[in-house]
Amino acid sequence: MNICKHFGACGGCSYLDIPYPQELAQKEAAIRETLGPHGHLLECIIPTPNQQGYRNKMEFAFGDEGKDGGLALGIRKRRSFYEVASIEACELIPEDFRKIALHVQNYFRQSGEIFFHRKRHTGNLRHLVLRRGEFTGEVLVCLSTTSKLEAELAPLITGLQELTLEGEIVGILHSINDGVADVVKDDNIHILYGQDHFRERICGLDFMVSAFSFFQTNSAGAEVLYGVVKDMAMQAADPSLAYDLYCGTGTIAQVLSPGFRKVIGIELNPSAIKAAQENARLNDITNCEFFAGDVLAVLESGSAENASSGTQAATPDVVVVDPPRNGLHPKALAKLITLSPPNLVYVACKPESLARDMATLIQAGYKPIRAVGVDMFPRTPHVEAVMLLRRT
């Protein structure tokens, strides 16, 4: 078994040293333990169709490979501010990402530019964000630097266009960030070439995804995950109205749309909602509506459908929640219970959050019916869990 030379030091993989079936068994056992007395409801953990090169998004950091080392571009090492692990042997990224990152690294090595040092506030190179449509091959490149960058970018753009790739670069962006924090910011973005989005095709639907929109990082795994969500949602006695809370760019809502009279998506990020609306038009879906706003605020207003129509709306037959890693905000959870949908599908990228919120839902009269694990992130400790709960 080949193990990356950075295994253990890099902040990416955790399971490279064991066979994949053993990794799945450990993750399944972990979900069962996390769910406690309801662990027996876990039917299985579904493996991802691709265990290598599956990531369709990577945020690489500029730094060095050791003290006084030369400029490097890669994955931030554990417990390190400046050292990065090179990506020559990374098993998580597609070959196109490897070629693009190495080209960008070599270009700036020759230019003399240095990485941004957070303590000294020197240097201009910050991050490189790469995104790719696994099923379309479209690639989006976003370079993040300070506004004081001196190197010319025109030769870099030409060199990127001349790379021999499996896919095709459809956009090259430049994000300017003069802040102190070591974060990738989605403002002050300039298009250097092409467009500001790429296309991906999931479950037979087309989606336009911008550089910083949320989208599942494993496209093939996302098809498996959304299939599980749809299967659970369609177990409602009379599926008519569904809510998709924390809907992002509207992927789940649109996957559900053929089985419901109406699907309403709610998401805090206005740009994500705009993308969701555009994606619905792109797919000729007319029974999805999307609202930008805090989920808690929308639930407090009564209901999204009420807000859209100006009339009293019926309780949704199914609510799908796909919250952030920390789960539902206690107030949002309380409002969801007040909304009292008969069926609730909880999608958790952190099963511990599901277990915590599930306890509250059980006290409020919900009964866990079934659970399924989906290994969206092989070789890492992360795993998704989907649970169907029904109001008793």
Q: What is the class of the largest domain in the CATH system? A: Alpha Beta
What share of residues are in beta strands?
Answer: 25-35%
Shape: globular
Distance between the termini: 50 Å
For the secondary structure, the number of strands is: 17
- Percent of residues in helices comes to 25-40%
Q: If you average the pLDDT, what whole number results?
A: 89
Describe this structure in words.
This protein folds into 2 domains: 20-51 and 212-391, 3-Layer(aba) Sandwich (Rossmann fold); 57-202, OB fold (Dihydrolipoamide Acetyltransferase, E2P). It has 10 helices and 17 strands. It has helices at residues 20-35, 95-111, 154-161, 219-233, 251-256, 270-282, 295-300, 304-309, 330-339, 351-363, and strands at residues 42-46, 57-64, 71-76, 84-85, 125-132, 138-145, 168-176, 189-194, 197-202, 205-210, 241-245, 262-267, 288-292, 318-321, 343-348, 366-374, 384-391. The strands form 3 sheets. An 8-stranded mixed sheet has the order 1-16-17-15-14-11-12-13, with helices on both faces. Strands 4-3-2-5-6-7-8 form a 7-stranded mixed sheet. Residues 307-312 have low confidence and may be disordered.
Jot down its keywords.
10 helices, Rossmann fold, 2 domains, single chain, 392 residues, 7-stranded mixed β-sheet, 8-stranded mixed β-sheet, alpha/beta, OB fold (Dihydrolipoamide Acetyltransferase, E2P)
